[in-house]
Design goal:
The complex is a heterodimer of chains A (343) and B (166).
Chain A (H helix, E strand, L loop, with lengths): L1 H43 L15 H11 L10 H17 L9 E4 L2 E4 L8 H22 L3 H32 L4 H6 L6 H4 L1 H14 L11 H4 L9 H26 L17 H21 L7 H30 L2
Antiparallel strand pairs in A: 1-2
Helix pairs in contact in A: 1-10, 1-11, 2-10, 3-4, 3-10, 4-5, 5-8, 5-12, 8-10, 8-12, 10-11
Chain B lengths: L1 H21 L3 H21 L3 H26 L11 H22 L18 H10 L2 H22 L6
Helix pairs in contact in B: 1-2, 2-3
The chains are: A mainly alpha (343), B mainly alpha (166).
C-alpha cells in the first residue's frame, strides 16, 4: 500500500515537473518568437528591427511583457463583461493544453531517474490535438462578439468561418497519416519514422497540412481575422493591456505547437539521420524536435513576410474547392498505395 | 476516486444543463451547453472510451456549437429582440410540458431495470477495438449511416446552390 502510494506520488511529481517545464518552455518560445518575427520581418524589409533593449534587442520581449502588464486595462461599457474577460483566458488555455500529448523525446535520464518526456501517451493523441484546434475558435468568437463592436464581430466571423473550413482539409490530410501508421498515438507515429520520414510518402499531404496550419493559426496570408486595412484590429480591436497580450501570445503558442505537430507527423519527430535521440542522457531528442520546430516557425514567418494577403472569397475558394478535393485525392492515393505496395 | 469524479461530473453537467435552459441570453445558453458536453466527455473518459470522448468534443463542442454560436452572432439575438410571450401562453406551455413529463415518467417507470453489464474488458472503448466491432458485427448499420451522411452532404450542397438554376 505504501509502495503503491509512493509510486503514484512519484508519477504525480514527475508529471507535474514535466508540465511546469513544458509551460515555461512554451511561454519562452512564444515570447522569443515575437522577437524572431520582428527581426525576420526587419531582415526581409531591409531594416534593423528591435535593437535598443539589451544586446541586439534581446530583452525586447521582456520589455513588451512589462508594457502589456502595466497598460490601462479597459473594458468597454457596452460589452458583455464576463464573456469579454473569459475569451482571452479561454483562448490561451486551449493553446497551452495541446503540448500535453506531444512526445518531446524518448526518456531523459537526470539525477539517476528516468523521466518520460511525454505528459500523456493517450492512444488518441492526434485527435486530441485536432479537438483542441477546433476549440480554439471559441476564444476568437467570444472575444469578437462580446466587444460589441462591428469590426470585432466581422473579424470574429471571418476567423471562425475560416477555421471551420480549413479544419476539414486538415482532418482529411491527417487521415492519410493515420492510414499509413495504423495508429492515432503520436508516439507510435514517430516511432515508425525512425528510418524514413512520412513526408516521403505524403508530400501532398504535407503541403495540405502546412497550408491548413497557417489558416488555423490565423497567420498571413490567411490573417483575415485581423486584416488591419479593413477591420482596424479584427476581433481584438477593443482589447487592451494583458488581455490583448493573451490573444497575441496564444497565437504564437499555436504557431509553436502546430510547427511541432508538423515535425512529429511528417518529419520524424525526435529522429534525425545520424543522430541518436538517446544521446546526452536523452536530451538529444528534445533538441532535434525543437530544432525542427524552430525551422518551421521560420518558414511560417518567411511565408508571412513574402506573400500578400488573400481576399476573403479567394480564401474560401481555396479551402473548399482546392484543398478538400486534393485531400480526398491524397486519401485515395494513400489507400491505393497501401493496398498495392503493402507499405 | 472514480465514484467521486462521476458524482462531481454528473452534478456539474446537470447544473450546466439547467443553466442552459434558464439563461435568458442565447449566447450564455450555448456556453452552458458546451460546458455540459465537456462534462459528458469526462464521463466517457471515466468509462475508458477515450475515442468517443474526443470525437464527442470535436463534433459537438468543436463543430455543431460553433455553428450555433455563429448563427446567434449573425442574428444578434438579445433580450430586447426576444419576443415576449403573454401569460396565457406561458401557462399553456407549462401545463403541456408538465403533462409530457408525467407521461414520460409513467411510461418509463419500472421500464429501466436492465442490469448494467459489469465492464469485463476495460479495453473495449479503445479505438482499435471500436473499429473492429464497427467493421465486423455492426458493418451494415455503419454503412447505412455512411450513406445517410453522404445524402445529407449532397442535400446541403444542393440547398446551397438553389438560386444558381441547376
Amino acid at each position: 500500500m505504501t509502495a503503491l502510494l509512493l509510486f503514484s506520488l512519484g508519477i504525480i511529481i514527475e508529471k507535474a515537473t514535466l508540465i511546469l517545464v513544458l509551460f515555461l518552455v512554451t511561454l519562452g518560445v512564444a515570447a522569443y518568437a515575437t522577437y524572431g518575427e520582428r527581426k525576420i520581418a526587419a531582415f526581409f524589409q531591409d531594416r534593423l528591427g528591435p535593437s535598443n533593449a539589451g544586446p541586439w534587442g534581446l530583452l525586447q520581449p521582456i520589455a513588451d511583457g512589462v508594457k502589456m502588464f502595466t497598460k490601462e486595462d479597459f473594458i468597454p461599457n457596452q460589452s458583455e463583461r464576463w464573456i469579454y474577460i473569459l475569451a482571452p483566458g479561454a483562448f490561451i488555455f486551449v493553446a497551452l493544453m495541446a503540448s500535453a500529448v506531444i512526445p518531446w523525446g524518448t526518456t531523459l535520464t537526470l539525477g539517476g531517474l528516468n523521466w518520460n518526456l511525454q505528459v500523456a501517451d493517450v492512444n488518441i493523441g492526434i485527435l486530441y490535438v485536432v479537438g483542441l484546434a477546433s476549440l480554439g475558435v471559441y476564444g476568437i468568437m467570444l472575444g469578437g462578439w462580446s466587444s460589441n463592436n462591428k469590426f470585432s464581430l466581422y473579424g470574429a466571423i471571418r476567423a471562425s468561418s475560416q477555421m471551420i473550413s480549413y479544419e476539414l482539409a486538415m482532418g482529411l490530410s491527417l487521415i492519410a497519416i493515420v492510414m499509413l501508421s495504423g495508429s492515432l498515438s503520436l508516439r507510435t507515429i514517430i516511432e515508425q519514422q525512425a528510418d524514413v520520414w512520412n513526408v516521403v510518402y505524403q508530400p501532398l499531404g504535407f503541403i495540405l497540412f502546412l497550408t491548413c496550419s497557417l489558416a488555423e493559426c490565423n497567420r498571413a496570408p490567411f490573417d483575415m481575422a485581423e486584416c488591419e486595412t479593413e477591420l482596424i484590429g479584427g476581433y481584438h480591436t477593443e482589447y487592451s493591456s494583458m488581455k490583448l497580450g493573451f490573444f497575441l501570445f496564444a497565437e504564437y503558442i499555436n504557431m509553436f505547437i502546430s510547427c511541432t505537430v508538423i515535425s512529429c507527423l511528417y518529419f520524424g519527430g525526435y529522429y534525425f539521420p545520424g543522430l541518436d535521440p538517446n544521446w546526452l542522457g536523452g536530451l538529444m531528442g528534445p533538441i532535434i524536435l525543437l530544432s525542427k520546430s524552430f525551422f518551421f516557425i521560420f518558414v511560417f514567418m518567411w511565408i508571412r513576410w513574402t506573400l500578400p494577403r488573400f481576399r476573403y472569397d479567394q480564401l474560401m475558394h481555396l479551402g473548399w474547392k482546392s484543398l478538400i478535393p486534393l485531400a480526398i485525392l491524397n486519401m485515395l492515393l494513400t489507400g491505393a498505395g497501401i493496398l498495392f505496395f503493402d507499405k | 476516486m472514480a465514484q467521486y469524479l462521476f458524482l462531481t461530473l454528473a452534478a456539474l453537467s446537470i447544473l450546466a444543463a439547467l443553466g442552459m435552459v434558464f439563461s435568458r441570453n442565447p449566447v450564455h445558453s450555448v456556453l452552458f451547453l458546451i460546458f455540459t458536453f465537456f462534462c459528458i466527455a469526462g464521463q466517457y473518459i471515466l468509462l475508458n472510451a477515450q475515442f468517443l470522448a474526443v470525437v464527442h468534443i470535436i463534433v459537438y463542442a468543436g463543430a455543431i456549437m460553433v455553428l450555433f454560436l455563429f448563427v446567434l452572432m449573425l442574428l444578434n439575438l438579445n433580450k430586447d429582440t426576444e419576443p415576449q410571450k403573454s401569460t396565457i401562453w406561458r401557462i399553456t406551455a407549462g401545463i403541456a410540458s408538465g403533462m409530457l413529463l408525467v407521461t414520460l415518467v409513467g411510461a418509463l417507470r419500472g421500464g429501466i431495470q436492465v442490469s448494467i453489464p459489469e465492464n469485463t474488458n476495460d479495453q473495449v472503448g479503445l479505438v482499435e477495438n471500436l473499429g473492429k466491432v464497427l467493421f465486423t458485427d455492426f458493418v451494415v448499420p455503419f454503412e447505412i449511416a455512411g450513406i445517410l451522411f453522404l445524402a445529407a452532404m449532397v442535400g446541403a450542397v444542393l440547398v446551397g446552390k438553389r438560386d444558381l438554376k441547376a
